[in-house]
Amino acid sequence: MIVQLYGTRGSVPSPLRTREYIQKVTQILELVQKAGPDSLIDIQKFISKLPPYLTQVVGGNTTCVSVTSSNGRRMIFDCGTGLRILGDELMRKEFQNGEGKIALFFSHTHWDHIQGIPFFKPIYIPGNELHFYSPYPDLKERLEKQQSPEFFPIPFSALASTKLFTCLSLGETLDLEGDCKVSFYPLKHPGGSFAYRVDENGKIFIFATDAEFTGEDFDSVTEMKPFFENADLLVLDAQYTLDESFQKFDWGHTSYTMAVNCAVAWNVKNSF
Fold first, then answer.
1. Strand arrangement, sheet containing 203-208
2. pLDDT tens digits for 134-143?
């Protein structure tokens, strides 16, 4: 199972600002100055030894996570603006010829979790097969509203790929091709939200964005343990500092302090 994060921001995209870019460049040049001119004889080798915070950009796009099963089956969890970049990558493969097949799962339909769909190139190609999964019986209607003429020039109905919708029932486990199973669990968030769990070959990945856990909720954290327990990788809402979580109580998000507490309580091996 391969997990890739294409979008990790909430509410709005947050690209790297000029000031932040200059800070990175300045720190790199300071390291060059410290190491001496010989360090640039092999530039790529020098860059490979830099810390990740200087060579990588974290965040930027809104929520979109890709999971690829051991047999190559691709799943997408939420369709924020990160979906556009993922779509560009998929177009280098079978999706450019209308031979692609992919499953899309939705935690909920707040704008930052669906706004990438109109810019997802594979959805415009005839022959591509997109399977939409969620517990929402009206998911198709919600996506159509996003692309109504007042907001977008191309209606959802005009997207030429084959689009199939499946409404999931609470407690249902979806068997995908091979040994991959997907289940879901309701979370506390305005309008509702759902976590998804992928089980394959003894490995567990859980996607649980947009959820509010507080100290008062710790009883419910314990109740959720059978769903979250022993996950190999957990992607969990951790939007706030602890102070912000008090100021924005009931807004539907979790502090990173509480997120760590949850991960420990659930015996999670790795958490993002």
1. 173-175, 181-187, 193-200, 203-208, 233-236
2. 999 999 999 9
